Amino acid sequence: MTYLEEIAKRAKEASAVLAVKTAMEKNAALLKMADRLEERASEILEWNGKDLEMAKEQGVSGAILDRLTLTEARIIEIADGLRKIVDLRDPVGEIVDGWTLPNGLYIQKVRVPMGVVGIIYEARPNVTVDAAGLCLKSGNAVILRGSSSAINSNRVLTDVIAGAACDSGLPAGTVQLVESTDRDSARQLMKMHGYIDVLIPRGGAELIKTVVENSNVPVIETGIGNCHVYVDGCADIDMAVEITVNSKTDRPGVCNACETLLVAEGLARDFLMRVRGALEEKGVELRGCEKTRDVLDGISEATEDDWYAEYLDLILAVKVVDDVNEAIAHINKYGSGHSECIVTNDYENSRKFTSGIDSSTVYVNASTRFTDGGQFGMGAEIGISTQKLHARGPMSLPELTTTKFVVLGEGQVR
Amino acid sequence: MTYLEEIAKRAKEASAVLAVKTAMEKNAALLKMADRLEERASEILEWNGKDLEMAKEQGVSGAILDRLTLTEARIIEIADGLRKIVDLRDPVGEIVDGWTLPNGLYIQKVRVPMGVVGIIYEARPNVTVDAAGLCLKSGNAVILRGSSSAINSNRVLTDVIAGAACDSGLPAGTVQLVESTDRDSARQLMKMHGYIDVLIPRGGAELIKTVVENSNVPVIETGIGNCHVYVDGCADIDMAVEITVNSKTDRPGVCNACETLLVAEGLARDFLMRVRGALEEKGVELRGCEKTRDVLDGISEATEDDWYAEYLDLILAVKVVDDVNEAIAHINKYGSGHSECIVTNDYENSRKFTSGIDSSTVYVNASTRFTDGGQFGMGAEIGISTQKLHARGPMSLPELTTTKFVVLGEGQVR
Questions:
Q1: Which partner for B405 in A202, A361, B103, B263 could form a disulfide, CB atoms 3.0-4.6 Å apart?
Q2: Nearest-CA distance from B33 to chain A in Å?
């Protein structure tokens, strides 16, 4: 049996035990995990330091280095994240539907854990703890496969939380880290149909694509966001400027940031003149279609690639469209199905947009930046699904479960 | 652009139109499809005759030939199936959840079509119409890829129903058949991520496995059923015999038929002596573990392969187990996650079984034969999912949809 098969087998065995644990038992483990993280903070920081050194030697840049960095404050934040999961309602056992058949059979559709969840992720060591906490609360065993750049941090974090889980009476396979971080270990995980029930990749477009193309385990695609703001012909210009600037610049490196701005022709001149200053003040580079460049002197030309681009940077593609119909067609063609916004005061256009757009989240008059489990009031988030199967949009505890039918009878046969 | 890319592109374009069709428009098309099937029955039978001739030449056996055969009565039945779909509630537009955030954002989680559904199926031409009807009602475009043995029947059926859909004002890509039935066309379909939103294989274990292993399109696995009946120590023996016989023999060739019988040691002698006669009367061959063979003289030995087997035939593997715990462990190890039954009058054991078994449907004191969309009162069935992602158990219209978040604001930003 290979190293990964052993991990998978242990996880599968653990999942059977976890499936019938009560919320009280799972919460006790989560609290112990949180306390231990704080108790062993200096040890964690020491190992994190090794990852940081390695990264600096390799000349890793500021933003990525920042994501990799743990501090005492960040560890307390991560521990508090686990404590917040304790407060969330246990999704397991929820009866989501139920009815009695004419023959007396009593059918209940009950929420149960997935079983074994695999997470393949990049850089951020906080994902190790967040993902483990959410999987545990939803009754799943988790297999974590982080990147080599965070291996020392991930190893000590997993040691701390898996130990705490074990000391709380949970089985050994509850939380496991795949310590080999070569490509082969990821590819092996993708072939573990029958052991792993769902694989969630969290990271860049390249990672997601590799997992989707190579996995025989069911996958939930997350977090590729080519999001749009469309400013309709009768939009309030002040509101449109504010929403555009917020969607683009509040945090340009995340998946719910706006990447393309569409403007209805009738409002193009007035709005583009206004929004240009507000965006350039924040350091945003504009790339426009021909009509945009007729209004905005000196900005560079947007090519076909720009309409597809997820910049994750202070760049914004701008296109003038005829109307809401062209906006919808553009978004459905070039978008990634994440989050789109229409700014309008036209009732019919708002309805056309919300029904015509094929994305996880569609906004009328609000920033795309709200697409987030925390912002949506879900309490926590395991990722944002941009696929249609199983879950779409921000995912929290219920999205880490499946259902089963429990049918109670008195001897019924067909 | 290849033949299949053209089909996929047409389906994708159609899906955008279908997504916003009202139930009235979709129902009108379904009724026209039903009428046309009856009007063109003799033409359909003629083409079906060609498939039957071909099958007979190839020496195809009785049961498969029977499934391939259409008659005037069967065509009326298929048309009535479409009329029943008209009566089902349109799942599209259902608001499944909704809330208002503290900042005033009003969130609705709305049911919307998947988009493009691909069905890869074997033999039965009725699937062509059933699947198309369910996909249409749920607002999806469908790409049908049947087997070569039914190509003439599938071609004429698709011609009839796609024509009716078109004449009802629905787009050309609403219902399409892939007319090339070689392996390559199936493999190409499995690689159409971005065009096809979900692929549902319907057929034997080999087909399902091929699709799961080769598809980069999300897949819903259906219909592999190694189902179990477990007779607990304090079961009512009459009830246990009746449920066992019904689960095994009512229709042995379908996925919800029982394949392995487990018996608690305490009741083994009394029960096995009773059930043997009832089963053998129906022509069932028994294969037993050592303890079973101690009680039942002359039956053959069950090997490890038998515990994994989906016979789809009048064969039943029989094993004596210590108690409910061993029964659960056996089922979770060897089962396919379809349907399992405990016959018991013990409260605690019934609870252990329903919570411990990791299958789509768990019965207490009822035949496994009830796992079926029609029996469950869902009105119609596109298949029975044995995976955990997206849908589990019998799938009907809601399982052919996804959701999106519609968020209404008044200018909110973060």
A1: A361
A2: 26
